[in-house]
Amino acid sequence: MAQQKETSNASEPVVLGRVSGLYGVKGWVRVFSYTEPRDALLDYRHWLLKSGGGWLEKAVVDGRRQGKSLVARLAGVDDRDAAEAWVGTDIAVTRDSLPATDEGQYYWTDLEGLEVRHRDGRVLGRVAHLLATGANDVMVVQPEGQEKRAARGTGEILIPFVPEMYILRVDIEEGVIDVDWEWD
pTM of this prediction? Predict the structure, then answer.
């Protein structure tokens, strides 16, 4: 979870999951949720689905946990063929429909693109994305400049997102995350 950017557009889509497959023959889809807990995605009764170059709003008629994943039925999607058209589609909601967060909590989308600096002031790169690993989230940092990538032999720095241990400070307004992490 995360603190919202003050400069963000309230109607901006925030991706919370993905249609990952089909479920049955009556138009249900399997859903991979990025929310914590996973079934929190079902709290949103209207989803934005990526369609062509834009977003299309679809009502969620029904949804539930099914094993380790979620399944949902969308309005107007009544058979397997109609459902198949949505497989691989991102699921989003508008930013203003997200719940407020407590201090020190962040939506991943707000961290992506922030500059990552070592405690000694060296710029390590920018947050490309985050991963959920079970034990803790991991920040994937893309070093800036081809010379840094070539020197290290890899294109990414993986930093556990553990506040007060590796993550020293997050300043959304300044656009910076200060870390204590050695990767060489």
Answer: 0.74
